[in-house]
Give the backbone structure.
Amino acid sequence: MVPSFNFIFLAIYDSFAGCGSHILLLPKDFMLNRCCNIKENWIASALLATAVTLLCVGFVDLPVALFVKNNLYANARWSKLTSNLPDFLLMVVLLTTLAAFSIYLVRSKKGIYDEMTCFARLVTWAAPASFATKHFLKFVFGRYNTRRWVHDPTLYGFYWFQRRAGCDGFPSGHMVVVVTLLAALWRFYPRSRPFCLVAGTLLALALVATNYHYVSDVIAGAYLGVLIEAITFRILLHEPSRLGTSAV
């Protein structure tokens, strides 16, 4: 079930395939029809992601978490290796944002407005947006993380808008941020798409296999990452004039 987020990823990106900078120069009638198709596909992909997430919450999350606990964590070496992994997500977001902004600033001042410049501008905004979004949604949903449930099976469920200790499981913040960045890479550099799929899948598997997240946390995080990238792109770079003249 974990790799199923790839299907959602592809479905959403098919929805937004017409939003790349090259398509903005097509005839107006074609673009209107294309926008209608994008809207319909977007609704369908949102419903699909929601349905898969709910199914996982109801029928998949606990069996998979229990399997990981009884099998992978029965191995003392695996348990010790993954018991206290450091969290560098904030540092990754800060460094990525700083690097992307620097690249955009240097290239835009030189009058260079190509794929790399637009990619850097997109990442400058999308990376911190993804981190802020995941932080807010964790508070909204208030779901106990998998490791809390492992130690106390009574701690399972969603505690909306409550700042309880350990209620930071849904959605997976790592999936939100990393998939946001992979989605930007996917959009501007098509040759990187196999890498994006492999990297996203491996991260999803790792988060579940270490009992840091339930399957539904990972799927929701992947969906939100694609969503954040798509929205940021449409805000920043949807108009042709913005591709070559706007500032951050």
In short: Residues 1-8, 15-32, 240-247 have pLDDT under 50 and may be disordered. The longest helix spans residues 28-72. The chain has ten helices and no strands.
